[in-house]
Amino acid sequence: MTRIGLVEDNIDYRTEVAFHLQRAGFEIALESDGGGIDTQLTNSPCDLLVLDLGLPVEDGLEIARRLRRQHTGLGIVMLTARGSLDDRLAGFEEGADAYLVKPVDMRELVATLYSVQRRLSVAVAPSEAWSIMLDTLSICSPAGQTVALTATEMDLLKCLAAATPEPVSRELLAVSLGHPEPDFDYRRLEVAFSRLRKKIETLTAGASPIRAARSRGYVFAAPVRLLSR
Questions:
Q1: Is 159 in contact with 132 (CB distance < 8 Å)?
Q2: Does domain 126-227 match CATH 1.10.10.10?
Q3: Helices within 25-123 (DSSP H only)
Q4: What does the pLDDT read at residue 20?
């Protein structure tokens, strides 16, 4: 049976989530803070973690950053009231496998947990994934070749990586660049992606993992990870 660590300091909400997850067939370990989940993972490891961000003593992002280093095979689903694009990107950068915003339909939470579990069971080796290096503004191919990025190109790649394997709409990409206005000239976005693709193609003999998703936006069509150190 899949064991899930549920870290949520609101007792009523924690009880509600635990009820639905148990009905779905998961074994649940309930905790209210980072110290509790540390002890839990030491004594009885979990397969997946449902993690709130607004926690006492230690913020959920800090917990995720630490646990990602200590438990590389742990699936982390962030479940929080923080719903901005910056919040979601920060969550993925710190190690989230999925990010859900409260209030959430419990059916979606269950489906997300199953999805993360499936992805982890067929996890791609690091040597087969692209790496976006946040601290050096660069991207590294699976073969180990690296190319430098501009700040704009990094913002676009962070947005795509956070959503992969799903496409990101042009509107959301414009927001990631700080242009939420409805009259934004999307030709600027097309030019930016054209330059980014050409830069990445120097690493791949002409094959870029960035693809246009017809009528939907753009997608990074390859395994990718965000690294900050």
A1: no
A2: yes
A3: 34-43, 60-70, 85-93, 106-121
A4: 93
Whole-structure pTM value: 0.63
- DSSP states of 46-68: -SEEEE-SS-SSS-HHHHHHHHH
* pLDDT digits 0-9 by tens, 47-99: 899 999 999 889 999 999 988 888 878 899 999 999 888 898 889 888 898 99
Question: CATH classification of 3-121 is 3.40.640.10, yes or no?
Answer: no
Q: Alpha-carbon distance 192 to 186, whole Å? A: 10
Number of alpha carbons in the 13 Å side-chain half-sphere of residue 119: 17
In the chain, where the domains are located: 3-121, 126-227
Rg of the chain taking only CA atoms, in angstroms: 19
Calculate the CA dihedral of residues 31, 37, 41, 46 and round it to 10 degrees: 50
